[in-house]
From TrEMBL, chain A:
Keywords: ATP-binding, Cytoplasm, Nucleotide-binding. It is found in: Cytoplasm. InterPro entries: Actin, ATPase_NBD, Heat_shock_70_CS, MreB_MamK-like. Belongs to the heat shock protein 70 family. Pfam families: MreB_Mbl. This is Rod shape-determining protein.
TrEMBL record, chain B:
The lineage of its organism: Bacteria, Pseudomonadati, Pseudomonadota, Gammaproteobacteria, Thiotrichales. It comes from the Bacteria. The chain crosses the membrane at residues 15-38. The keyword Membrane applies. Keywords: Membrane, Transmembrane, Transmembrane helix. Residues 68-78 have a biased composition (Polar residues). This is Uncharacterized protein. Residues 67-100 are annotated as: Disordered.
Amino acid sequence: MPTLYHVGIDLGTSRSSITTSTGKRVSVETCVGYPKDVISRKRLQKDYLLGAAALDNRLAVNLIWPLADGVIRDDEQSLQATALILQHLLHIGLPEKQAGDQVYAAIGVPAQASIINKKALIQLTESFIDKVLIVSEPFAVAYASERFDECLIVDIGAGTTDLCRIHGSLPDPEDQLTLTTAGNFLDADIAQAIHKQYPDVQLSPKIIRNIKEKYGYVSATADPVKVKLNTLGVPQEYDITQLLRECCLRLTTPISAAVQQLVGSFDPDFQERLRHNILLAGGGSRLKGIDIAIENSLEAYGGGRVECVQDAEYCGCTGALKMCMEMPTEYWARI
Amino acid sequence: MTPAQGIAAPLTHVAALHLAPGAIVLVGGLLAVKLLVLKSWHHHRKGRKTAESKQSELEQQLKDLQGQYDSLHTQQQNSAAKTQPPPAAPSATTPAASGKQALFEQLIKENIALREAL
């Protein structure tokens, strides 16, 4: 008898994650590497490499990041790469899946993803997923933490920061905001600031990401941030304490303004409740002090309470899976 | 007086002297027990009678309330039938039920609309 599997997928600009009804959860970099030439093809013995394998061989491959600003780029190669990543996620998430087994999936997309993009995702998955449900990523976060009443979700990803007001029903367009001020923006800003201060320093996306993830902060006080970077191959220690804080603040300031905008335009009877129920998710929620910074930005509004989710990486896909599993069969039959 | 009486008299006297208090105590005890049993039986009867009357009283109250409820329910139904607007077409934004069921309904509708736009 064929088995029915449920999966929740968070298709992110930088990383994509899957959680399955078998209890497995996996995360991969959202990138595909195609061999650059005949020599690299011969060495790699593959038509393409996925995720970490592609990054490890990035000098020998043409690296494709198929998502930009949280959505699939509108070109054939990106569509093909997205399909490959989704198939790879299913393959490693459900290794026990046999031919004939069925997969029902809920895929999280940015709050303001266009209809064209959502349609593209449905068409892409038709051949290897039996039923696909497209859900707003911040709504999936709310679903994971069962926060349905007057809650503001702020999902800070790599490509986009999605803000979404939840008030007991599916969010309307005016309840959602998508900013491109997100993780990748911060990476570029940190690289630019370091180069401005130390022009000869050698940087790579991986080095910048490591600095951001390990030291990123917006709190008023912090330990000195001293990192070892190469200058023409020679490692030296550089103090980037102040520089890093300024960059991180350039990320959090527009997010705080967006929070203020969604709070300020909400029904006045429920604004206080909304201000005291703000949930930060996504990789950006791991910046030290970001919760306090947003709380401080709400002082003029009467104060607020901001929390960070415990499981920033898998929170979205866990919510999508939960939705998937709780949805009665008759609803699935309608799509 | 017969000889037997003459012989038995002192014995009877002695027996009466020794046994009389015991017999009195025994008879008294039996009387007390009987009184207690009677009293308890009386209480039991009385209690039963009270419980029975209380139960019938409550049954009557329940019947009255049931009658009141039926009458109010009928009135409400009549009034609702008079004021109910004609059935409206289902709306995409109106939650069909409460809680998650309504969310699923909305979510499915959105996904169907998305497919129809294909």
